[in-house]
Amino acid sequence: MRISRFTIALLALGTVGQAGYAVASVLGKATDYVYVETNIKTTNGNSIAAFQRQADGSLKPVPGSPFLTGGEGVQFTGTAAGPPDSDQDIITNLDHTLLFAVNSGSDSIAIFHIHGDGSLTAVEGSPFPSGGNNPVSLDLVGNVLFVANKSGDPGRPSSILPNYTTLYLQPDGKLEPTGDTSNDSAESYTSTVSVEVGGSPTQVHVVPGTDLIFGTDFMGGLIQRFRFNVDGKIRQLPPVALPASEFTDTTTPRLPLGVWHHPYLPLLYVGFVTDSKLGVYQYSLNGQLKFLRAVPNTGAAICWIRTNREGTRLYTTDTTSNSVTVYNIANPETPVQIQNFVLSGLGNALQFDLSTDETSLYVLSSRGSDAIPQGQGNVLHSLAIGADGKLSEKLAPTVFSEPDSTRPQGVTVVSK
Questions:
Q1: Full residue range of the structural domain in which residue 133 is found
Q2: How many independent structural domains does the chain possess?
Q3: Its pTM surpasses 0.90
Q4: How wide is the angle at C-alpha 302 spanned by C-alphas 327 and 368, nearest 5°?
């Protein structure tokens, strides 16, 4: 099945990682539903927890939640950072009728129909093979699903190389491979591109309105770059290392984590995790990256990144400090930090998403350290966003009763 380049550009405007962006015309007329993956590692234990957003930003479980994915979560049994590092673990299609979620511990992708009341039912045949080992991140353009397979779960060692791959979404919601051209050097575009062993891909992110994909190989220390064609296949461009000039200590590894685009300018933001900085790059339509600068982040271990629709505020989660940093990006090439907000309680801030009306920020915090007592840390925070973009926390977080050594992952907000 093929899609035209025009269709790709048009549908990319509704990039699923920013579900709220596609529904600006119905602000105030619909209900938000918030979805989180439980990431439970037992056989058929993984599931999607669904919540209905209330008028005050609080969350009420959707009847029938959680909804089983038919697979398993990350098999790692410890609390160290690394295996759960990922973003866009859960996404939706443009019209919010389908939800996609990784089964990181069983190499598959679960797909659900999203109903008007926020409930989910599995697509027939779900889950589907992910095209690799340990899938962690997804993005969707038209009928092409892009997948990052980390192959980095210590609880389930594999000799399969990490990869970036593509799958076709059929009209009935099923997934099929795009072809058998994996790592074929004779072809300009292939269905799968493998990367170095231990590279630890964490995100696959399509820039809306382009044929560009950016990702981070966390342990490989590289920003990955790809282009995709009308058949939904990908071509790897030379990866880019973080600039040595921004790391004054030569013994500090230059590790990237988290990429996000500016909503309407050709700018890419990247987390410089080990140096506590937000990197700013300019990209060209052929995928070239020009490093502009890096600005300070007073949180510890900057990870995931989001912007608001207007392109005036940028948010990052900072895992080690369990905080969210807010930047003013009115001058988008020079972000200015205006707040570092520490979340209530103990935990490690991970994935997050904005409500459709951008008055709430939902931030997942996990138990990523033995210093956090069992039974604490796995919560979803409901933060209020003020008129100035700054954050406050007036509501008690939603607590997940997870088995020991399990950490929820992935947050997405859907308007119905």
A1: 5-415
A2: 1
A3: yes
A4: 135
Among the listed residues 32, 74, 65, the one whose alpha carbon sits nearest the alpha carbon of residue 47: 65
CA distance 192 to 164: 6
Side chain identity at 254, as an amino acid letter? Answer: R
Q: What is the pLDDT of residue 82?
A: 65
Q: Are 255 and 219 in contact (CB under 8 A)?
A: yes
Helix (H) or strand (E) segment spanning residue 5: helix 5-12
Give DSSP secondary structure letters for 23-66. GGGGTTSS-EEEEEE----STT--EEEEEEEPTTS-EEEPTT-S
User: Distance (Å, rounded) from C-alpha 373 to C-alpha 385?
Assistant: 29
Q: What is the C-alpha to C-alpha distance for residues 275 and 280, in angstroms, rounded to an integer?
A: 14
Q: What is the CATH number of the domain that holds 342?
A: 2.130.10.10
pLDDT in tens, 194-244: 999 999 999 999 999 999 999 999 999 999 999 999 999 999 999 999 999
Q: Which pair of structure tokens corresponds to residue 126?
A: 């779900």
pLDDT digits (tens, 9 = 90+) for 346-395: 999 999 999 999 999 999 999 888 888 887 889 999 999 999 999 999 99
Residue type, 46: N
Q: Tokens 């995931």 appear where?
A: 304
